[in-house]
Amino acid sequence: MEEQIGSKALRPNPALEPLKVLVGQWQTTGSHPYLPGIILHGRTTFDWLAGGAFLIMHTEIDHPSFPDGVAIFSSDDVAKTYFQLSFDERGISRKYDMTMTGNQLKWWRDEPSFSQRCTMTIEDNGNKIESQGEMSREGAAWEKDLALTYVRVR
C-alpha cells in the first residue's frame, strides 16, 4: 500500500494546542439586533483536520438570514499569529486575524466597507461559550452583531 503524499505533516500543530478546548459538538442559541425578539437556534462543530494540523469549524443556524459556514483555523509559527479562513453558502470568503488569551478567543477583520470582530469567552470548564460579535459598515461606529451561547453536546 502506498503512503499518502505529505503524510508526515498530518500531525498536531503545537501552536493550535490552546484551541483544543473547542473540539466537539455544540448547540447554540442566540440573538441578533436586526431580529428583535427572535431566538436563534443552531449547531457548531469543531474538529481537527489533517491529523491536527488545522482546526475546522462547521456552523449552521436555523434561520434564513444566516448562512451555513465553514472555517479553518491555523497559525504562523514564526510570526506567532493566528488566523481563520471562512467560507459560507453564499460564496463569501473572508480572512480573520485571531488571538487566544486565557479563556478568550477573539477574531476580527478590518475591511473599510465591512469590518467585524467577535469575542468568545470560554466558561464552565470548557462546556459553555459566550460569544458576542460586532460590526462596522463603511467606517461607522461599531454596533452589536450576532450573539451566541454555545453549550457542549459532546
Give a verbal description of the structure.
The structure is a single chain. The protein is mostly beta strands. It contains no helices and ten strands. The chain has strands spanning 24-31, 40-49, 54-61, 69-76, 81-88, 93-101, 104-109, 114-123, 128-137, 143-152. It has a ten-stranded antiparallel β-barrel with strand order 1-2-3-4-5-6-7-8-9-10. Strand 6 (93-101) and strand 7 (104-109) form a beta hairpin. It is globular and about 55 Å long. The N and C termini lie far apart (35 Å). The mean pLDDT is 96.
Blueprint of the fold:
Elements: E1 24-31, E2 40-49, E3 54-61, E4 69-76, E5 81-88, E6 93-101, E7 104-109, E8 114-123, E9 128-137, E10 143-152
Antiparallel strand pairs: 1-2, 1-10, 2-3, 3-4, 4-5, 5-6, 6-7, 7-8, 8-9, 9-10
Main attributes of the structure:
single chain; 154 residues; mainly beta; ten-stranded antiparallel beta barrel; globular
Low-confidence spans: pLDDT under 50, at least 5 residues? none
> H/E order of the elements?
EEEEEEEEEE
Number of helices: 0
Shape: globular
In the sheet with the most strands, the strands line up as 1-2-3-4-5-6-7-8-9-10
What is the strand content? Answer: over 45%
Cα gyration radius (Å): 16 Å
Output mean pLDDT: 96
Q: Helical amount among residues, as a percent range?
A: under 10%
Count of strand segments:
10
Structural class label: mainly beta
Terminal CA distance reads 35 Å
Largest β-sheet summary: 10 strands, antiparallel, barrel
